[in-house]
Amino acid sequence: MDTPHRFPVHVYYEDTDLAGIVYYANYLRFIERARTEWVRDLGIDQGRLKDEQGIVFAVRRVEADYLRPARFDEDLTVETRLVSSGGARVVLTQDVTREGAVLFSSVVTLVALSDGGRPARLPADLRARLG
């Protein structure tokens, strides 16, 4: 995916520490929201996927680099790009930016799991939507 999916995030007081800087764990919340919207924008209904095929996505691995702080009341953007997808795995990069400057950079590996918690092959139509 050359053009990233973009998701806006506004930094609220609750997102920050006493110094007014975004608490490090909240970046994971920001990228989680962005992934949910990325999947939705691809036309994938995660609730339906679970109900009809018993498949859910789970985070298997996150590599994260905290490069610059974000602060209270700033507007940020989460940029999500597909790196690769396989039978049961999806790898993404997700960057949190402010006016084009990267503040947080991550590589996220997702896996598809069955109701029993075992790896599950992604349906062909879903793999096609991922690209």
TrEMBL record:
Q: Per the record, a Pfam family?
A: 4HBT_2
User: Which InterPro entries does its entry note?
Assistant: 4-hydroxybenzoyl-CoA_TE (IPR050563), HotDog_dom_sf (IPR029069), Tol-Pal_acyl-CoA_thioesterase (IPR014166), YbgC/YbaW (IPR006684)
Molecular functions (GO terms): fatty acyl-CoA hydrolase activity
Give me the segments passing through the membrane: none
Q: Which UniProt keywords apply?
A: Hydrolase
- Family note: Belongs to the 4-hydroxybenzoyl-CoA thioesterase family.
What's the protein here called? Acyl-CoA thioester hydrolase
**What organism is listed for this UniProt entry?**
Tranquillimonas rosea
High-level lineage: Bacteria, Pseudomonadati, Pseudomonadota, Alphaproteobacteria, Rhodobacterales
